[in-house]
Specification:
Distance between the termini: 49 Å
Number of helices: 4
Number of domains: 2
Structural class: mainly beta
Helix content: 10-25%
Largest sheet: 6 strands, antiparallel, barrel
Strand content: 35-45%
Length: 188
């Protein structure tokens, strides 16, 4: 099976859950809807299973990973995590072998967001333009600081600009055009 080129990391597998082979997933976001609704996960593992201790501690490069598809038979929220039963994983000992692996879902399989809502992954690489038409840079990442998300924008000088992702400052998001219009100045 061909690995989709639009995989998005959504969580990390922890200890097994129960005795029947369920896995315990620490979701990458507070709202794991995509994990819960997706019926196919891609789970990564290192291509070289004899990796050194240093390579197991640091985050591996995408080219060092092998992605395996797994059909999700059942998933549900449990405390602050998601637990899931994967096809072919019927025993606790098998589920334990997945500990530390990352869970990915194809972006094409994400449910459509509601009007005015966006997946953070879709905002990354969007060009940010202010009211005067000046390009401030591109979104490098979106981070959550509790009260609201913040756009981390990298300008041409590699200077970071932090813009709260709230209606007072973000006036328009055009995912198709890959552009975000903001009421923000370069020197804020």
């Amino acid at each position: 099976m061909n690995v989709p080129d639009d995989l998005v990391e959504l969580g990390r597998i922890g200890e097994p859950y129960g005795l029947k082979g369920w896995v315990n997933v620490v979701a990458s976001s507070d709202e794991p809807d995509v994990l819960l609704k997706s019926k196919q996960w891609w789970i990564s593992r290192l291509a070289n299973t004899e990796g050194t201790a240093a390579s197991r501690v640091s985050k591996p490069k995408p080219e060092d990973l092998v992605f395996e598809p797994f059909r999700v038979l059942q998933s549900k929220p449990h405390a602050d995590r998601v637990v899931a039963h994967l096809e072919g994983v019927e025993q606790r000992e098998l589920a334990a072998q997945f500990k530390g692996r990352r869970v990915y879902v194809s972006r094409a399989r994400f449910p459509a967001p509601a009007e005015g809502e966006y997946y953070w992954v879709d905002l990354v690489a969007c060009q940010v333009v202010n009211l005067e038409g000046k390009t401030l840079g591109t979104v490098a990442q979106v981070v959550d600081h509790g009260a609201h998300p913040i756009l981390v924008v990298k300008g041409s000088s590699e200077q970071e600009i932090l813009i709260p992702f709230v209606a007072a400052y973000v006036l328009n998001v055009d995912i198709q055009a890959r552009q975000i219009k903001v009421d923000w100045q370069e020197d804020y």
